[in-house]
Amino acid sequence: MFSKESFLEGETILIDKPIGWTSFDVVKKIRGTIKNRYGIKKIKVGHAGTLDPLATGLLVICIGKHTKKIQQYIDQKKKYTGVFLLGKTTPSYDLETAFDNEFLTKNIDVAQLELIKKQFIGKQQQIPPVFSAKKINGVRAYEFARKGEKIEVKKSEIEIFNFEINCELFPEISFSITCSKGTYIRSIVSDFGKKINNGATLIKLRREASGEHNILQAKSVEDFISSIS
């Protein structure tokens, strides 16, 4: 059971982030609830790895002295599942922005997609989306992108450990991917489309695991609040 003392001493909780919420929305809600419930004026709360508003799934929340563990959790492998759509693109690589290009998909050889998938395994240099939380001179990249300002986002090294796809609902492709910290799944999807001389857009994303933490251990925001109310 949680208590005022346990939160101040340090707790790590696992939350299943709902769609439409930012990661900071979750942090703010949990911090406010703890402060109000126990009459605490100030307490540290942070998350170990941002999820986009349109993504759902595991968010590792560190409270009190456990915020010192955030970087440790960030550095761990992540596992995601989701769906991307071939034949269309958006500026943000997902459904945050409207479709801007459309391609024919009838000539795509589905068997070739398995070969393309294998090209992503291993270490590589990745360019994060311009619509991302990546900081450029202290400002989030998406703030420039939403104003229509052109920016250069620097490459960073990532590693893909496992990548599986399912083409049964082509042109929608279901996938599972295990990757290093700092990997942008939207960029993987966009690059996948480019490799087949087509386009691709991420339409669904869920974080299933982070290190040893699994989504099956997570609670909804509402259930966590109920557990301490």
Molecular structure report:
The chain has 7 helices and 13 strands. It is an alpha+beta fold and 229 residues long. The chain has 2 domains: 4-75 and 212-228, Pseudouridine synthase; 78-210, Pseudouridine synthase. The strands form 3 sheets. Strands 1, 2, 3, 4, 7, 10, 11, 12 and 13 form a 9-stranded mixed β-sheet that branches. A two-stranded antiparallel ribbon has the order 5-6. Strands 8-9 form a two-stranded antiparallel sheet. Strand 12 (200-210) and strand 13 form a beta hairpin. Helix 2 (23-38) runs parallel beside helix 7 (221-228). The longest helix is centred in the N-terminal third of the chain and has 16 residues, at 23-38. It is elongated and about 60 Å long. The N and C termini lie close together (12 Å). The mean pLDDT is 92.
What is the tally of beta strands?
13
Sheet having the most strands: 9 strands, mixed
Element-level helix/strand string = HEHEEHEEEHEEEHEEHEEH
Report the principal-axis shape: elongated
Strand content: 25-35%
> CATH homologous superfamily of the largest domain - what is it?
Pseudouridine synthase
- In angstroms, what is the radius of gyration? 19 Å
Briefly note the CATH topology name of the largest domain.
Pseudouridine synthase
Q: CATH architecture of the largest domain, please?
A: 2-Layer Sandwich
Helix content: 25-40%
Overall mean pLDDT score?
92
Uncertain segments are none
